[in-house]
């Protein structure tokens, strides 16, 4: 057992209202620079939909992540030799059009236009070329249009559902959509790190945050292809790749990352997970059906005395272990088994988990009475989004896992309904709790964490112990006196 | 490598045989400064009453031109030609545009030469070859190898290609310090070529070949090579080079294009094009 600490995340999709406040907070802090205009380290996309960049989930096109072969895990992008042969020519990159061409408006024209019969307009101009453009796409172009024939209908996850289900899904009366906010997953087995020929990408030992060294990056852009989530972006201005840094400068000063901090729906949870690094490979190599289970097994209980002992041997500080014990992520992922990794079949063992959205079941209105088909609260099978669709997103096709999550979420709701209105039929709550395999104290705790938890409960930011992490290579006192912070760069001379 | 030092030494005595004028020069070496000088410096290109070689027959030249002009011309022919002297220019045109080299003679030598020319002693005519020493019949392919430096000169002379070019000699051609020798056989004519090869009288070549003359066999090979070179090859063969470069460029472009076809194009545009193919109506609109 090789214990590692990872700052990990849960997004509760049930609560996401698609307001993009997280994206704006991130953009304002990190990617509001020349060359980074098109980047959204945090983006919110509408599902069903093709996402940002277009069809990022389609690895037949982008060849990101890992594939399981007879010889074990292999990068889908290329072999070592193949990568060398293609080092000057990486054919698997999204074009700027697949992200979208960033633009602004000529607002000045509104004020400076001469008097005339027509209202002046602010024309859109490209932020890349500065020329006027026709806006054709954006990072969430299809916002709220789950049924759109172009983007909604081409969601790669729809391949898993039947033709009839697909037709139903896009009937106007049954139209359904939900939001999927995405940041870097800070994977335990990152494809970008493996694909980088310059060795510029690394996963920080103390907190598992994946970073691109701006000093070492040589712009090969293999990381852009290697990441199956397309969460590494190439900056055309600086000639370096960039990605979500999980706001480590904020975290090191005890603050939650900006997107977490600003989340209006309070859907985001952050905390430390302990995992067994020796099991990463085994976990990523399992057949699709077992991937989620394998990933859960990889995560270790921070209260287990044996784990604590091993963790301390690995140099994980007691304060970090204490934070891990308070981690809401651990509860969602391991204790309640509600949060699932996005596309575990990509093999990167993502460390960002999602609670699938419990969308309202389809109901009929008969004789003035609102009916939700048969059962009291409907059943997972009656969900508007087919279980198969969600399974394709969150469990590599294993519907049973989604069904289990849905049962729990329904039990929580029925329990709350019984507690607040008492309208629940006799025996219904007990039946649901038994089916879901939870007790009322579990549902109470889930309800509390989903709905009532305050800022500090949702964001158990661990102490970052930078001095301790540094101690491994230099004496912190020396470092303090000599180094300061950041890079040492020669000043730009004027001659 | 050809090691023919010994035979070369033996044949060295017969150097004179290559050039009939040279032969007589050695015989009469003690016959006066002017005569010896003429034999050494002028005879490769000029005769007195023996007809034209590379340059004009100098019989009666002292009566044809005035002495001052002759002095100027012999001491610095390059300068006279460059100064736009009409006589020098006419001669240059007349004699296949082969300029007379500046032999670096001092005033005494020029005077001695002019005195000798004024004396009117005739050199034997071109055809009067001593029968005892016929020029060896050369092998043109051996000459080409000697020219290109594939075989070294027996006496250690520098390969011709270092300074001279002959059309088609090597992929990169020869040096450009000396003139292009492609048409040297027609420009110089047989006799002049033979004597030039034997003595290599040109000022730039003197310090290089002075102590390393060519053996008669080598001279013959080179002469045969030059004779063959003339009609065989045009001055510069540019057409095949242009064709090859063009074909290479086209092949590279095609290869790049073929590789580029495997590149991922715009995914979104393809999607939109496919979805709006049927008159803008999507597949799943209920």
Automatic annotation (TrEMBL), chain A:
Key word Ion transport present: no
Coiled-coil spans in chain: none
Keywords, in A-Z order: 3Fe-4S, 4Fe-4S, Electron transport, Iron, Iron-sulfur, Metal-binding, Repeat, Transport
Cofactor: [3Fe-4S] cluster; [4Fe-4S] cluster
Region (Disordered): 476-495
This protein's record includes keyword Transmembrane helix: no
Main location group: other
GO cellular component: cell envelope; membrane; nitrate reductase complex
Name used for this protein in its record: Nitrate reductase subunit beta
């Amino acid at each position: 057992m090789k214990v590692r600490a990872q700052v990990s995340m849960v997004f509760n999709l049930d609560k996401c209202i698609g307001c993009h406040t997280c994206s704006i907070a991130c953009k304002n802090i990190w990617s509001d620079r020349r060359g980074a205009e098109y980047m959204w380290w945090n983006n919110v996309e509408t599902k069903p939909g093709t996402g940002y960049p277009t069809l990022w989930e389609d690895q037949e096109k982008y060849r990101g992540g890992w594939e399981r072969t007879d010889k074990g895990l292999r990068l889908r992008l290329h072999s070592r030799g193949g990568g060398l042969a293609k080092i000057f020519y990486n054919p698997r990159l999204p074009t700027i059009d697949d992200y979208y061409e960033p633009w602004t408006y000529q607002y000045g024209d509104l004020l400076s236009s001469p008097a005339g019969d027509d209202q002046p307009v602010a024309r859109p101009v490209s932020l890349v070329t500065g020329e006027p453009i026709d806006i054709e796409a954006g990072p969430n172009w299809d916002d709220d249009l789950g049924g759109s024939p172009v983007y909604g209908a081409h969601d790669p996850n729809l391949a898993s559902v039947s033709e009839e289900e697909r037709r139903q899904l896009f009937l106007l009366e049954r139209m359904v959509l939900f939001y999927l906010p995405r940041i870097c997953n800070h994977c335990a087995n990152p494809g970008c790190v493996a694909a980088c020929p310059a060795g510029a990408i690394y996963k920080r030992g103390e907190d598992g945050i994946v970073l691109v060294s701006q000093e070492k990056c040589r712009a090969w852009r293999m990381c852009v292809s290697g990441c199956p989530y397309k969460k590494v972006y190439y900056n055309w201005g600086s000639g370096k790749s960039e990605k979500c840094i999980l706001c480590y400068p904020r975290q090191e000063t005890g603050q939650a990352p900006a997107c977490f901090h600003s989340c209006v729906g309070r859907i985001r949870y952050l905390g430390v997970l302990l995992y067994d690094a020796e099991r990463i490979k085994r976990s990523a190599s399992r057949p699709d059906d077992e991937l989620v289970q394998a990933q859960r097994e990889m995560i270790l209980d921070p209260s287990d005395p044996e784990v604590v002992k091993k963790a301390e041997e690995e140099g994980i500080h007691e304060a970090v272990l204490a934070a891990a014990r308070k981690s809401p992520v651990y509860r969602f992922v391991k204790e309640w088994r509600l949060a699932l990794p996005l596309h575990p079949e990509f093999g990167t063992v993502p460390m960002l988990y999602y609670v699938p959205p419990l969308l309202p079941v389809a109901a009929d209105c008969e004789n003035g009475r609102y009916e939700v088909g048969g059962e009291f609260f409907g059943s997972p099978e009656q969900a508007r989004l087919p279980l198969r669709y969600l399974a394709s997103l969150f469990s590599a096709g294993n519907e049973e896992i989604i069904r289990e999550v849905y049962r729990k979420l329904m039990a929580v709701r029925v329990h709350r309904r019984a507690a607040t209105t008492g309208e629940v039929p006799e025996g219904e709550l007990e039946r649901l709790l038994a089916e879901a395999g939870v007790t009322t104290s579990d549902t109470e705790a889930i309800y509390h964490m989903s709905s009532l938890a305050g800022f500090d409960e949702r964001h158990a930011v661990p102490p970052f112990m930078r001095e301790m992490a540094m101690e491994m290579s230099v004496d912190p006192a020396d470092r303090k006196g000599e180094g300061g912070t950041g890079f040492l760069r020669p000043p730009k001379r004027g001659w | 490598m050809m090691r023919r030092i010994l035979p070369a030494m033996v044949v060295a005595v017969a150097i004179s045989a290559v050039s009939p004028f040279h032969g007589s020069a050695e015989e009469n070496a003690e016959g006066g400064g002017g005569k010896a000088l003429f034999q050494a410096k002028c005879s490769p290109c000029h005769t007195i009453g023996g007809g034209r070689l590379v340059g004009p027959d100098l019989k009666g030249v002292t009566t044809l031109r005035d002495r001052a002009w002759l002095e100027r011309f012999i001491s610095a022919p390059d300068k006279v030609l460059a100064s736009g002297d009409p006589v020098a220019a006419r001669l240059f045109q007349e004699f296949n545009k082969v300029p007379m080299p500046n032999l670096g003679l001092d005033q005494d030598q020029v005077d001695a030469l002019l005195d000798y020319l004024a004396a009117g002693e005739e050199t034997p005519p071109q055809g009067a070859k001593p029968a005892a020493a016929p020029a060896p019949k050369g092998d043109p392919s051996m000459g080409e190898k000697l020219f290109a430096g594939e075989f070294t000169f027996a006496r250690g002379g520098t390969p011709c290609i270092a300074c001279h070019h002959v059309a088609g000699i090597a992929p990169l051609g020869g040096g450009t310090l000396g003139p292009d020798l492609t048409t040297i056989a027609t420009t110089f004519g047989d006799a002049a070529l033979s004597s030039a090869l034997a003595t290599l009288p040109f000022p730039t070549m003197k310090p290089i070949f002075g102590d390393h003359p060519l053996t008669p066999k080598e001279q013959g090979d080179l002469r045969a090579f030059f004779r063959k070179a003339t009609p065989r090859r045009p001055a510069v063969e540019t057409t095949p080079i242009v064709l090859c470069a063009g074909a290479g460029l086209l092949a590279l472009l095609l290869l790049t294009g073929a590789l580029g076809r495997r590149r991922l194009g715009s995914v979104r545009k393809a999607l939109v094009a496919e979805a709006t193919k049927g008159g803008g109506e999507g597949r799943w609109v209920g």
